[in-house]
Amino acid sequence: MSVKPSLQALWLADEVNRHDDGKVTVGGMFDEITVRSGEDFTTRAYLFFSLRDVHDRVSLRLTYTDLEDNDVLLERTVAATGEPLRTTDMTIRINRIPVPHAGWYIWELFHGGDQLGSTRVEAKVV
Question: Strands of 88-94's sheet, edge to edge?
C-alpha cells in the first residue's frame, strides 16, 4: 500500500520554468479560456502541480471533466518520483483542451481512488 501524497498547488499556466538552482517560476496562471465555436483550446498551456509526501514513485491519474454532464474528456496517468520531505514539482504540457460548449470544466488529480485536488476552468465561446 502506498502513502497518499499531499497536493500543495494545481494550476493552469502559460509557462513553467525550472531554474538551475531548483526554483520553479510559474507564469500566466489562468482559470478562463476563450475559443471560437466548434474549436478546442490549443494555445500552449501547462498544468503545474506540487506535491509533498511522495515516497519513491507513485502513479497519479489526471482527468479533465465537463461539469455540465460529468463526462471525462481527457484522462492521463502520470508518475511522480520524489522523497517524502521534499517538494515534488510536476509540469504537464497540455496541447489541446476540449471545449464542446461554453461552461465549467474541472482538472482533477487522483491517487488511487482519492482526489488530491482540483482546479476549475470556465470556457467562453465566441
Answer: 24-30, 6-18, 45-52, 88-94
Q: pLDDT tens digits, residue range 23-42?
A: 999 999 999 999 999 999 99
For domain 6-125, give its CATH number from 1.10.260.40, 3.40.50.2300, 2.60.40.1930, 3.40.630.30.
2.60.40.1930
**CA atoms of 119 and 23, how far apart (whole Å):** 23
pTM higher than the cut 0.85: yes
